[in-house]
User: Which sequence fits this backbone?
C-alpha cells in the first residue's frame, strides 16, 4: 500500500532511473521535495542537473521544458498549484500543444506537466481549482487525472513514456490516501492510459467521474446500496481523449447517467460527456444526463468549500432525479 | 553605452582591431547575402499584393542585423528565430518554397528545423526565448560545443517570457545569446512607448553580458556577435546584443505605417541603408571585383523568378492534412473524426 504521493514519487524515480533523458523540474522540487513532498529525495539521488530547482516562473518552467524536449530530453514539470498554471498558459496551449502539428510531425515534445488539482484541503484562493477543461479543450495535449495510487504510479509512467505532451492532474486531497499499486506492468490492474475504469459495477445509474470525485461517488454508491439502488461508478482517468466507447457501453446498460466533477458545470467536461451521450445513446436513455459539479462562481473561501464541492448528498440527489424521471 | 560601429554610413571602415579580418571576400559574401535577402523579401511582398500570399512580414532594412549575426556563429550552433528573420533563414540554406509556405497558408511551417539548425518561426512574441534557453540547458547537459542564438525585437522585450528567459539563462548559466533587432517599432508603438530604459541596460541588470551595436553595419554586427558567441561558448555565461536597426516597411502587409510615422523618419533611415553602406565600402576599396555586381544582379533576378515560380506552384493541401500530426499517436476519437469528414466530403456527387 502506498499513498498517492508516494506512488507518484516512485513513478518519477522509475523515470529518472530508466531513462537518462528524463528530468524533473519545478519550483522547490529539489531540496525541499516539493510543497506536497511528491519529489522528496529525488534530487539527493539523481543530482541537481536532473531534478532541477527552477526560478519562480511558470512560463519559464514549461517554456524551457519545451526547449529541453526539442533537444531530446523528457522533462516532467511540476506546477505548484492549479491556480498557478495560468502564467504558463501560452506555453502550454500555443507552444507545447501545437509544435508537433505545426512542424508537420517533425518535432515531438514529450513534456509532462504535473498539476496538483482541486480542493478539499481548506486552502486559500487559487489553490483549489479544477481547471481541466481548459486543457482538454486544446487539441495536441493529452490530459490525465490520477484518482488512485495505482494510477498515480502507472499512468504517470505511461505519461512520461508518451511522445505527446501530457497534462497530468493529481487531486491534492487524495495525496495522503493509500491504495494498492501493481508491482509489474503485466499486472491486470495496469490499464492503458486512455481507458476508462469501472471502479464499481452497478445496474441502475452510471456515475461518470474523475479525480477528487471518484471517492465521493464510491461513497454515494455504498450509501445507495443500502437503499437498494445499484450505482455503477466509472473513473474516466483520461480526459483527452475520453474513452467514449466505454462510457456509451456503460450508459446503454443502465440507461441513466450522472456526471460528477469538481469543476463548475458551466462549460465543464461534464457538458461534453452529456452531449456525447445524448448523441450516441439517445434511445437507450431513460432520463436526461445530469451534471453535478461546482457552481459558476470563483472557488469560494475555505469555510464555504463544503457547499461548493459536490458531496455524497448532492450526488444522491441527482441520482434520485434521474431515477424519478 | 556607446554604439559599436565599424563602418560609417559613408562607408568608411574604422581602424579597429575588430576589423582585422575584414577583406574583399568577406564583404562580397555578406553583400551577396543581403542583396539576395532583400530581393526575396521584395518579391514576396509583390506576391502578397497579387494575392498569392496571405500575409508577408518584410525584413527590408534589417538585413545587416540578421546576416551579420548568423554569419558570425557556427553552422553547428542553433537558432530560434522570431518571424521576420528571412535573411538569417536564407543564410541557413532555407529556400523560397520553405520560407513562403507558411505565408501562403499551405502549411503551418516550412522547413525541417533539425536540418538547418534553425527552429520554426514563432508568432507569439518572445515565446521562443524560453525555448532557446531550455534548448541551451540541454546543450549544457550534453556537454556539446554549441551556442544557441535567439532573435527577438524591441516589442517582444516587453513580454514576460522575454524577461523570464533573461533571468533564467543567467541563473542556469545557459549557453544562449539573445539577439534583439531593435527596429524602432512594434507595429505602431515606438520604442519610446515600449520601455523606459534601453534594453541593453535592462539586460545588464539581469546579469547578461551586453553589447549595443549599429544594426545597419553588417561588419559591426558580425564582430560583436562573434565576440559574444565566443564568450558564451567559453562558458562565461549568456549574453545579449541589441542591434539598432529600422523596419523600413510596415509591420506586415496588413499594416499602413503612414498612419503613425513620418516620411522624414523613413528618409533618414534610408540614408543609413545597410546594403548601400557596405556597397560604398566595396567600391572604395575596389573590392567590387569586375563582374561581381552584374553577376549578383543576375543571381538576384533568377532568385526572384524562382520565388514567383515556387510560390504559385504550391498547391492547396488536401483537407486530410489538417488531421495529421495533432498527436504523435492518433487517438481513436481523432481517427473517427478524420474518417467521418473524409466520408462526408466523399458523399458529394461531382
Assistant:
Amino acid at each position: 500500500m502506498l499513498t498517492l504521493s508516494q506512488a507518484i514519487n516512485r513513478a518519477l524515480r522509475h523515470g529518472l532511473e530508466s531513462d537518462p533523458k528524463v528530468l524533473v523540474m519545478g519550483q522547490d522540487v529539489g531540496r525541499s521535495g516539493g510543497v506536497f513532498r511528491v519529489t522528496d529525495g529525488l534530487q539527493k539521488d539523481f543530482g541537481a542537473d536532473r531534478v532541477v530547482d527552477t526560478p519562480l516562473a511558470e512560463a519559464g518552467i514549461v517554456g524551457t521544458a519545451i526547449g529541453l524536449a526539442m533537444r531530446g530530453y523528457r522533462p516532467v514539470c511540476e506546477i505548484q498549484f492549479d491556480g498557478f498554471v495560468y502564467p504558463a498558459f501560452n506555453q502550454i496551449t500555443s507552444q507545447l500543444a501545437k509544435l508537433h502539428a505545426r512542424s508537420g510531425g517533425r518535432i515531438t515534445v514529450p513534456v509532462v506537466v504535473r498539476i496538483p488539482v482541486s480542493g478539499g484541503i481548506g486552502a486559500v484562493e487559487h489553490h483549489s481549482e479544477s481547471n481541466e477543461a481548459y486543457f482538454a479543450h486544446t487539441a495536441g495535449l493529452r490530459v490525465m487525472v490520477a484518482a488512485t495510487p495505482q494510477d498515480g504510479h502507472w499512468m504517470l509512467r505511461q505519461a512520461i513514456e508518451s511522445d505527446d505532451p501530457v497534462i497530468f492532474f493529481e487531486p491534492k486531497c487524495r495525496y495522503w490516501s493509500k491504495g494498492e499499486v501493481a508491482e509489474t506492468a503485466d499486472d491486470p490492474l495496469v490499464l492503458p492510459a486512455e481507458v476508462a475504469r469501472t471502479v464499481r459495477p452497478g445496474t441502475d445509474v452510471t456515475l461518470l467521474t474523475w479525480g477528487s470525485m471518484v471517492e465521493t461517488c464510491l461513497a454515494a454508491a455504498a450509501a445507495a446500496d443500502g437503499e437498494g439502488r445499484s450505482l455503477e461508478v466509472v473513473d474516466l482517468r483520461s480526459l483527452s481523449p475520453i474513452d467514449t466507447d466505454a462510457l456509451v457501453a456503460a450508459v446503454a446498460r443502465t440507461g441513466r447517467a450522472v456526471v460528477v466533477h469538481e469543476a463548475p458545470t458551466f462549460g465543464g467536461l461534464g457538458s461534453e460527456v452529456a452531449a456525447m451521450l445524448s448523441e450516441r445513446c439517445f434511445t437507450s436513455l431513460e432520463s436526461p444526463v445530469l451534471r453535478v459539479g461546482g457552481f459558476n462562481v470563483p472557488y469560494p473561501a475555505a469555510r464555504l468549500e463544503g457547499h461548493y464541492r459536490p458531496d455524497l448528498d448532492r450526488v444522491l440527489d441527482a441520482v434520485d432525479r434521474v431515477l424519478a424521471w | 553605452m556607446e554604439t559599436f560601429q565599424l563602418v560609417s554610413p559613408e562607408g568608411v571602415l574604422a581602424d579597429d582591431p575588430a576589423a582585422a579580418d575584414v577583406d574583399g571576400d568577406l564583404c562580397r559574401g555578406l553583400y551577396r547575402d543581403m542583396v539576395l535577402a532583400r530581393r526575396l523579401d521584395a518579391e514576396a511582398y509583390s506576391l502578397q499584393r497579387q494575392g498569392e500570399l496571405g500575409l508577408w512580414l518584410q525584413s527590408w532594412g534589417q538585413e545587416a542585423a540578421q546576416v551579420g549575426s548568423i554569419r558570425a556563429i557556427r553552422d553547428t550552433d542553433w537558432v530560434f528565430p522570431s518571424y521576420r528573420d528571412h535573411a538569417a533563414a536564407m543564410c541557413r540554406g532555407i529556400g523560397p518554397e520553405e520560407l513562403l509556405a507558411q505565408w501562403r497558408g499551405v502549411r503551418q511551417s516550412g522547413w525541417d528545423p533539425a536540418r538547418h539548425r534553425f527552429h520554426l518561426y514563432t508568432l507569439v512574441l518572445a515565446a521562443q526565448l524560453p525555448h532557446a534557453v531550455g534548448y541551451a540547458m540541454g546543450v549544457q547537459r550534453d556537454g556539446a560545443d554549441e551556442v544557441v542564438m535567439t532573435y527577438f525585437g524591441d516589442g517582444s522585450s516587453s513580454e514576460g517570457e522575454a524577461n523570464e528567459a533573461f533571468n533564467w539563462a543567467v541563473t542556469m548559466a545557459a549557453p544562449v545569446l539573445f539577439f534583439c533587432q531593435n527596429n524602432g517599432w512594434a507595429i505602431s508603438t515606438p520604442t519610446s512607448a515600449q520601455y523606459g530604459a534601453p534594453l541593453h541596460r535592462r539586460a545588464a541588470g539581469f546579469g547578461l553580458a551586453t553589447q549595443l551595436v549599429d544594426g545597419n553595419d553588417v561588419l559591426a554586427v558580425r564582430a560583436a556577435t562573434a565576440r559574444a558567441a565566443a564568450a558564451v561558448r567559453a562558458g562565461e555565461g549568456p549574453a545579449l546584443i541589441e542591434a539598432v536597426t529600422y523596419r523600413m516597411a510596415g509591420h506586415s502587409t496588413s499594416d499602413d505605417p503612414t498612419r503613425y510615422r513620418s516620411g522624414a523618419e523613413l528618409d533618414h533611415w534610408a540614408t543609413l541603408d545597410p546594403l548601400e553602406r557596405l556597397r560604398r565600402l566595396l567600391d572604395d576599396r575596389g573590392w567590387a571585383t569586375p563582374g561581381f555586381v552584374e553577376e549578383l544582379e543576375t543571381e538576384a533576378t533568377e532568385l526572384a523568378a524562382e520565388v514567383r515560380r515556387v510560390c504559385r506552384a504550391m498547391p492547396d493541401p488536401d483537407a486530410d492534412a489538417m488531421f495529421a500530426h495533432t498527436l504523435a499517436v492518433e487517438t481513436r476519437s481523432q481517427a473517427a473524426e478524420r474518417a467521418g469528414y473524409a466520408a462526408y466530403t466523399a458523399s458529394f456527387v461531382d
Summary: Residues 24-49 of chain B form the longest helix (26 residues). Residues 318-350 of chain B form one domain.
